[in-house]
Specification:
The protein is an alpha/beta fold and 248 residues long. The protein is built from 8 helices and 10 strands. It has helices at 52-59, 82-92, 108-119, 125-135, 150-162, 180-197, 208-211, 234-247; strands spanning 8-19, 26-37, 41-45, 67-72, 75-76, 93-97, 168-172, 201-204, 216-221, 224-230. It has a 6-stranded mixed β-sheet, sandwiched between helices. A 4-stranded antiparallel β-sheet has the order 2-1-4-5, with helices on one face. Helix 3 (108-119) runs parallel beside helix 5 (150-162) and helix 5 (150-162) packs parallel to helix 6. The protein binds adenosine-5'-diphosphate (ADP).
Length: 248
């Protein structure tokens, strides 16, 4: 998680994703070229159906694009087979999902270390202690997800995503299932991880308040990037979304 100013952690070039074929085909991404800076917190915003999830899934190697290129660090994803993509996801990416996606039969601690355990990688005990302390889940580590609140489950998922020092953390509507207070804690933690640990974070959200925690908001409409806002605020993002709605 070295912060090299100006370096690009993740890049997409002329990315196209078409679902289906012929007249029923949907062009979910229509030539997206964008870079996400290392050690920065970027929000991907846009109306429902604009292609946010599709872009994130392609960037994270969870789905394959129809054409175009994606690189994570110096690794080009395009053209990799399933096994190689799995290795990239395991070694370079941390995920935070709206629905937490913890394994119910494992304790919080086991969930946090599972990706590293599966990869045969040793968890850095200092970083684990640090994350657990900052997230305030030290007394919850022996509990299963069903014994934790939504906010606590998402904090476990954040520790799981960050403990391997991934090249990038992708967060998909990370506050979508949380009350506003837990949501604010999760967003504050993501922002701190960027500004204190140099983590790179890319977050999909439809919430202008969530995007205001980011350093940059990239705006999608109909599968294209239509705006790019530095230091977004709730007001500037809301304005941009309203302009988009007015232009349609
Ligand atoms: P967002 O995340 O911004 O709501 P999506 O990326 O989910 O947008 O969707 C972009 C477009 O692609 C939408 O028109 C959606 O209906 C379509 N789409 C998404 N996933 C699929 C799929 N699996 N099959 C067909 N169309 C899809």
């Amino acid at each position: 998680m070295q912060d090299t100013p100006g370096a690009t952690a993740v890049a997409a070039t002329e990315l196209v994703k078409v679902y289906g074929t012929g007249t029923t085909g949907v062009r979910a991404l229509d030539g997206v070229t964008v870079g996400f800076g290392q050690g920065r917190f970027t929000a991907i915003m846009g109306p429902s159906g604009s292609g946010k999830s599709t872009l994130m899934h392609c960037l994270a190697g969870l789905d394959t694009a129809t054409s175009g290129r994606i690189t994570i660090g110096d690794t080009e994803l395009t053209g990799l087979g399933d096994r190689a993509l799995t290795a990239v996801r395991r070694d370079k990416i941390g995920f935070v999902f709206q629905a937490f996606n913890l394994l119910p039969q494992l304790t919080a601690r086991q969930n946090i270390t599972l990706p590293s355990d599966l990869a045969g990688r040793r968890v850095d005990p200092g970083l684990l202690d640090h994350l657990v302390g900052v997230l305030g889940i030290g007394d919850r580590l022996g509990h299963r997800p069903s014994e934790l609140s939504g906010g606590q489950q998402q904090r476990v998922a954040l520790a799981r995503a960050l403990v391997s020092r991934p090249a990038v953390v992708f967060a998909d509507e990370p506050t979508g299932n949380l009350d506003s207070r837990s949501g604010a804690e999760v967003l504050g933690f993501l922002s701190d991880s960027v500004h204190r640990l140099g983590q790179t974070v890319v977050m999909v959200t439809h919430d202008p308040g969530a995007a205001a925690y980011a350093d940059r908001a990239v705006m999608l409409a109909d599968g294209r990037i239509v705006d790019d806002i530095e230091n977004p605020t709730r007001a500037s993002v809301t304005d941009a979304l309203q302009n988009l709605a007015g232009a349609r």
